[in-house]
Each structure stands twice: as C-alpha cells, then as structure tokens.
Amino acid sequence: MKWETMLLEEDCLKLIDQRKIPQEIEYFKARDYQQVIFAIREMVVRGAPAIGATAAHGVYLAAVEFKDLENEDFQKEMDRAMQELAESRPTAVNLTWGIRRMEKIVKESEILERGKLLEKLLKESRTIAREDVEINKELGRVGQKIIPPGAAVLSHCNTGALATVGFGTALGVIRAAHAAGKNIKVFVDETRPRLQGARLNAFELLEEGIPATLIVDSTAAVLMQKGEVDVIVVGADRIAANGDTANKIGTFMLSQLAKVFNIPFYIAAPISTIDFNLDGGEDIEIEERDPREITHWQEQPIAPEGINVFNPAFDVTPAENITGIITEKGIVQAPFKENLASIAPGGDKG
Q1: In terms of domains, do 163 and 267 share one?
Q2: Element (H, E) at 313
Q3: CATH number where 76 lies
Q4: Which of 24, 40, 49, 98 could form a disulfide with 56 if both were Cys (CB 3.0 to 4.6 A apart)?
Q5: Residue ranges of the chain with per-residue pLDDT less than 50
Q6: Helix (H, G, I), strand (E, B), or coil: what is residue 326?
Q7: What is the pLDDT of residue 348?
Q8: Could you tell me the sign of the dihedral formed by the alpha carbons of 111, 116, 122, 127, in that order?
C-alpha cells in the first residue's frame, strides 16, 4: 500500500479521509480531541479497530490540550473529553475499549509529572496502533485456513487496512489467502447506503491485485443460488458474549441467505471487538444515521422530498447463523458462549 490509515503524531492525528476515496487520497488533520470526535462521527475514519485507535489518540490530544491545568481540573476535563469521545458513535465496542486503556494512564496523573504522563499516553496510543496491525496479521494467518483453493469469497462493507490501523480483519483473511497462492476471487457488494464496499473494499482489492467483481447488494442471492459463492467472510463492530454479532447493515440478510444455500458464514474480528459484558445481541445499541445518507448522494437528491426514512447503520446476526468467529487466538465455533469465554482476557485459555 502507498498510504497509511493513520499517522499518530505528537501534535496531531492524520487520518486518511475515507469520504474522498477512491477519487483522491487526502489526509484529515485532527489537532484536538474535538476534531477527533468530528472525524469519527462524520466517518472520516470508520471500522471498529480504526475507531478504537483513533479515539485512543484523541485522549492523548485532550491531555495535551489540558496539560497546564491543576490536577483536579485536569481530571475533570479529561473525564468530560473521554465521555464525549465515547459518545461519538455508539455501536463499535473498540471505541470504548481504546478509551479505557488510555483512561487507566490518565488516572495516574496524581503520581506522574505531567510531561511523563503525556509521554506515557503517547506511547500507549502508539502501542494500541501497533498491536492492531500485529493482531490483524495473525488473524489473517489463522483465518485464511477456512478459504479453500480457488474459492469465490463474498465480502461485505470494508474490512481492510482502511477499517483498521493496517492489514484488515475479514479483508485481511482474504489478503492472507491470496498471498498463500490460493487463486481466489472476491465478490464485493456495494454496501449501501455509503458504498463502503464499492468505494473502499474494491479500492483495496485492486491495489493488492486480488481478482474482484463488484455487485449491487441485491445480487448476492442470485450468486448464491447459482452456486458461485463458496464462503462469506465479514467483519464486526461488536460481538456479544453468546456470539451474536453487530455488523454493517445487510450482514444479517447475507447470513440468512447463507443458511438457505448452505454456505459457510464467518465473522473475522479481534478479541477486543467481543463485549463480554453483553449477554446477547438484543443488548447492542444500533446507531441510526442521517436520513440524507439514503435520500441524497453527494448532496444531490435521489429520493422525493418528504419520504420517511429508516437508516440503521448496523444489524445483528444471531449466533446460530454463524459458522465460526475468526480471532487472533483461533477460530471459535459453537457453543459460542463457552468457547468465547475461553479466550476472554483473564479467562481460561485452555
């Protein structure tokens, strides 16, 4: 790749502006945590792992902004900034996961000299980013085993380097299978309404030289009916303790079709995307976004004015529709509640 999803610098966070791909590669510069919130909310950056790393650096930028305050005021402002960051998008669990890792260091402000605190926060932010790339590469190595040689893989939304700090989750699995010489091909659905498949996944696949065919979302059923899809691999924004998975809207529909046509359906996500505090998918908050994402395209109306709109950004795929969940620790299969618990941080790894 000739670009990086994000560059974590001491005075700003540079994010590749995903709103402008594939027309141009341009970096959005966030110099304070409020600009980081804007970048997350307006989808300059998107994808659960990328959002987590972005929010973590937002905490660091907030600390830079408030560094001259007395400790009581510093803690008060940092608590407010972290809460605002956490509320920027509600569904992706990596957002709060990244903030919590930084918060542990913020709470050390009473015992650390302020300059040392900033150094420690910057180091942790960069560690989160580095770990994400390493985890995704391991996830790809583990996951490519489920893709047979010569397979046709169906992808949904964008789950590559753009959705992470680097390499990708579901697209990372595809990338690893391609690198292993498996001679695969990929069907890329558009992923309405923001076209993350058409704009972003297709962009990454072309850059990698992986054979890919773009389809509209509603073509997937025809391809499955004709026996032209061998496996489906998608990402996740939050996975409940029982395996229920929130992902980009349209994922549930694909999982139902996969059941009808007996096609393996896999989730690919790091362990940080699993919310062990949620019993099931019914507890996952689903973000509903601006109706203009459906009624307009690049500010041009494509629907009659006044039409009612329902625009959830995500849906929940029940665990019974999922063949397996690919993580950096292995491929988890049913019973998901017990087997996911075995890879929980601090849980039984045996």
Answers
A1: yes
A2: none
A3: 1.20.120.420
A4: 98
A5: 348-350
A6: strand
A7: 39
A8: negative
Domain identity same for 238 and 256 = yes
Tokens 């964008």 -> residue: 158
The verdict on 100 and 222 lying in the same domain is no
Query: Are residue 226 and residue 191 in the same domain, yes or no?
Result: yes
Tokens (6 digits) for 91: 């569904």
Q: How many CB atoms lie within 10 A of CB 205?
A: 24
CA pair distance 13, 32, nearest whole angstrom? 8
Supply the residues annotated as catalytic: 237
Token duo for residue 324: 């397996």
Q: Is the pTM of this model over 0.90?
A: yes
- Model pLDDT, residue 152: 98
Structure-token match 């939050």, residue found: 238
Please give the Cα distance from 347 to 242 (Å, whole number): 15
* Residues 34 and 172 placed together within one structural domain of the fold: no
Q: Torsion angle, CA of 129/135/137/141, rounded to 10 degrees?
A: 180
Nearest C-alpha neighbor of 127 from the set 53, 55, 61, 47: 53
Enter the tokens of residue 272: 């940080």
133, 146: one domain: no
Edge-first strand listing for the sheet containing 238-240: 274-275, 238-240, 245-248, 314-317
